[in-house]
Amino acid sequence: MGKAIVVGSINMDIVAFVNNHPKIGQTIFGKEVKYFSGGKGSNQAISCKRLGCDTVMIGRVGNDSFGEKMLKVQREEGIDVTNVKMLNNTTTGTAFITVSESSDNSIIVIPGANSSWEENFEDNINIENNDLVLAQFEVPDWVIEKIFVKAKKCGATTMLNPAPVRDCKKEIINATDILVVNEIELQEMAGIDVNKDQDESVFIGAQKLLELGIGTVVVTLGERGVRLLSDGKRKRLNARSVTPVDTTGAGDCFIGGIAAGLLKGSSLQSAAELGNIAASISVTREGASSSIPTLNEVNQIFGENGEIYEK
Ligand code: RIB
User: Fold this and answer.
1) What are 133's strand-pairing partners?
2) What residue ranges do the domains of the chain occupy?
3) pLDDT tens, 274-285?
4) CATH number of the structural domain 4-10+39-61+119-305
5) Could you say which of 45, 51, 191, 195 would form a disulfide bridge with 260 (CB–CB 3.0 to 4.6 Å)?
6) Among 300, 305, 238, 297, CA closest to 52
7) pLDDT digits (tens, 9 = 90+) for 220-258
């Protein structure tokens, strides 16, 4: 089995739990503040590891208390952090998050060290042909382009989660095998309106992305589940019915699950089901990476589904 190599952000999440998100110009009282380890890259790496595959994190933190804490969290998960560098003269990425009573969130990210990469950072990163390389949009485009181009040269598979969405360079698209988007990212990248409540509309959007040359498009739709489009075949996975308390990082949890499943040799559908089940557990808990279940928990909570996954 190959390993997951995650090139991405590492953030300290400072989360205010509130009744309702503040309106512009409004001051409100929140209920509680909590600190969680976060960052889309780090969350996805933790999800890959907890859901069963060897994981390498490639990222940057500042030489500060948040950076030390984030590195400690990753080490304790058993993630290879040899290529996580602690940089002077910058701060660890920080996310300011509000989570409302209805479990939804709004996020402001200050990238800090996530933007500071040295040229040729990828030179000493070992990629093998059975590895899966994951990236998100919380690090610079050129960083993603370089690691994806190297991954393709090494025969590895690449998975892109373009979040938070921005224009995607052609060079990155050309080196992407699997694209994982939510409905907002789908809409932006496909350049058309998408109605997440109508499968046909979602698949039309996904088809537009396939036409860019990407082999597999995976669309996460929250409580509506997941849609897969690959080799011209459509698949629909329903979401589990749960009572959510905090949806932060659910997409990251899903991505770690699908990556871990694929690395273990599962079909795209089974791998996506692993991500789907794991994400449905994560939304019932607070925090981003803190909410991600282990493979054992997935198997225990959803026994009849869990048994299709090896321990
Ligand atoms: O996807 C959730 C993540 O987005 C949070 O952990 C936050 O750090 C931002 O990167």
Assistant:
1) 5, 158
2) 4-10+39-61+119-305
3) 999 999 999 999
4) 3.40.1190.20
5) 51
6) 297
7) 999 999 999 998 899 999 998 999 999 999 999 999 999
